[in-house]
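Appendix C. Worked example: Triosephosphate isomerase
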Amino acid sequence: MRKKIVAGNWKMHKNAEETEDLLNDLIDKLPNDVEAQIIVAPTFVNLASAVDHLEFTNIAVAAQNMHQTEAGAFTGEISADMLKSIGVNTVIIGHSERRAYFNETDAILANKVSTALKHDMVVIFCFGEELKDRQDNQHFNVVENQLRDGLFHIENKDWELIVLAYEPVWAIGTGETASPEQAQEMHEFIRETVRKRYGNTIAEDVSILYGGSVKPENAGEIFSKPDVDGGLIGGAALKAEDFSKIVSAI
Ligand code: PEP
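Step 2, the predicted output written as structure tokens:
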């Protein structure tokens, strides 16, 4: 059976002290009895302290990115081995901000996925259409291509490490959310696309998260849809109270 997951992407927010404060706040406020897996993704420099801080909790730590190469002359980059060596076993790959501002193509992302899987890391694979794609009625094609080119090279056995995160770019950080019906329609399409390529068991078992302006006020309705298995949360993950309410809505 697939897992419910709520993950917070902190992006380039929170220095060391603020990271500790937010983690303490989350430990205080997050519900203990929830069945969802909870994940937070602070910045690279605060990952090690987050892992230490959350050691005896049910909150996992993810990186927001990693390099596709094992090691080498890539100034400023971070490898899978480095992440694993500090206890980070989950990585977000393909966030739309990485695709748009750092030129991460489907081919690069496919490499990143392979490297992460080689290191037994859980991959939260993000994808989603831009506003223009939806206006042109191309959103299903765009999503299908992103899945095919960035992810569908993996083997059946790798799927136990994959979490999908559908994030329509027009809904990220904009306050504009996909309606619960739009989210369900796309999640159902994504599951069907996985089913066609990898079969029923993998399609039914993979968790598909929705991301894009999820807030305490809309989380319940979005999460109630049958193919929405949780959320990837940006802005609202930076406030413990909001994030806790979203987790409680699952
Ligand atoms: C995100 O960046 O993954 C995201 C979903 O952001 P927000 O919740 O702020 O729209």
